[in-house]
Write a sequence for this structure.
């Protein structure tokens, strides 16, 4: 007994180090295979407020450019609206809409890590829930991962865990959008079969297979494409429309039928067994 | 005198965390270089202090930065590592002098100080990027990031070090 206590006292620093190292490795490795931790992320109260204050100061420097972006988007939407005569206000009834959209501002952006998360200034109190889609006026951005009362973290498409259903515009050939951690303006589209005719410059948009994003949200254009090692699928480099280094205003998209879809899918899977 | 010492370290801790997360985490020089200047805390921390407390503090420092940058416990793991091996690095750099009671960082030569800082940064970055990228297939990417970010960190730490150097008393 005496010896055990002596041993502990003698190596207390090493044991402390070992303990703390195992704690941190535990957190880290857990996040490699599962979701980001529920509690240790930047959407919590302290970090969220500090980041928001800092953002409040710096946000003024980009107002001009942001206004320009919003004007361009308004122009595009106006054009769509005028050429698409709906006439009927019933279609605007929010109960019947599949998707509802909320707005938010980015208060922390990152793109230099293998797993990048973005923090936005809207949270559970504004009706944001995990697994909602986040887009900008130019294209897709990511998926909400965690929320606190006033903030939310978003798993960016520049995240090695990101996996989003995407397709080539005007066709129904779909694949998965992933990221190889190399460049912040290029992501990869895999699992497109080799019989699909491709051209450099083709547009890639979100596919309708996920219950997170609406179909047809722009992602980017084909930069280059190769056959993968098994020679049966393409792996495609996609240049993003979004400048991931410069993002301010975002839209959070909620699919009102998502729960119903998931429930149905789970039920089907359960019945299968 | 003692309370003054604690006070100084607390101020340092808070300021370095804020400077790191509000300025240097957003630098993204060349698209990926974010220098980690908070290592200066471990460089400046008094030598003859309680080692267990030092390791604990370093863990807290790393973890505080992890909170802001959504990196789980990567900063914590790498900071704890250099906190633990700091005495070994010091013995290597400063030789037997380090054992004397009167040893002070400001009394050593410039070359020794820089070597000490470089070794701290090197070990820290190696642990950090190995854990962050977490695959042997991307070992070159790890090396590239360690070298590029390490150089930037070293330069900035030296600049900060000469700006806010501990007064010789």
């Amino acid at each position: 007994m005496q010896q055990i206590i002596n041993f502990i006292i003698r190596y207390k620093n090493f044991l402390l180090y070992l303990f703390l190292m195992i704690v941190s490795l535990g957190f880290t490795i857990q996040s490699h295979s599962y979701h980001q931790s529920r509690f240790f992320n930047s959407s919590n109260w302290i970090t969220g407020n500090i980041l928001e204050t800092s953002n409040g100061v710096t946000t003024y420097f980009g107002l001009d450019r942001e206004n320009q972006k919003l004007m361009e988007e308004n122009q595009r939407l106006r054009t769509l609206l005028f050429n698409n005569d709906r006439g009927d206000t019933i279609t605007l009834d929010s109960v019947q809409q599949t998707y509802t959209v909320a707005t938010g501002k980015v208060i922390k952006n990152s793109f230099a890590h293998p797993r990048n998360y973005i923090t936005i200034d809207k949270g559970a109190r504004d009706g944001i829930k995990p697994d909602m889609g986040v887009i900008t006026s130019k294209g897709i951005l990511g998926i909400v991962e965690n929320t606190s009362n006033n903030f939310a973290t978003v798993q960016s498409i520049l995240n090695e865990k990101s996996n989003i259903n995407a397709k080539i515009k005007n066709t129904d050939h779909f694949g998965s959008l992933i990221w190889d951690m190399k460049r912040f303006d290029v992501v990869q589209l895999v699992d497109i079969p080799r019989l699909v005719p491709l051209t450099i410059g083709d547009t890639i948009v979100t596919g309708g297979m996920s219950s997170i994003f609406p179909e047809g949200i722009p992602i980017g254009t084909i930069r280059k494409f190769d056959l993968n090692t098994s020679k049966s699928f393409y792996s495609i480099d996609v240049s993003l429309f979004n400048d991931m280094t410069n993002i301010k205003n975002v839209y959070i998209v909620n699919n009102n039928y998502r729960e119903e879809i998931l429930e149905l899918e789970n039920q089907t899977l359960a019945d299968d067994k | 005198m003692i309370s003054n010492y604690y006070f100084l370290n607390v101020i340092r801790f808070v300021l370095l965390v804020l400077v790191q997360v509000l300025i240097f985490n957003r630098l993204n020089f060349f698209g990926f270089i974010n220098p980690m200047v908070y290592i200066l805390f471990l460089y400046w921390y008094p030598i003859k202090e309680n080692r267990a407390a030092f390791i604990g503090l370093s863990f807290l420092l790393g973890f505080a930065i992890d909170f802001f940058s959504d990196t789980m416990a990567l900063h914590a793991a790498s900071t704890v590592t250099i906190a633990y091996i700091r005495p070994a690095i010091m013995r290597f750099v400063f030789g037997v002098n380090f054992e004397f009671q009167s040893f002070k960082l400001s009394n050593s030569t410039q070359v020794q100080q820089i070597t000490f800082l470089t070794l701290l940064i090197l070990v820290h970055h190696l642990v950090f990027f190995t854990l962050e990228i977490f695959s042997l297939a991307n070992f070159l990417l790890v090396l590239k990031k360690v070298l590029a970010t390490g150089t930037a960190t070293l330069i900035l730490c030296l600049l900060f070090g000469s700006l806010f150097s501990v007064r010789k008393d």
Q: What stands out?
A: The mean pLDDT of chain B is 85. Chain B has one domain: 2-163.
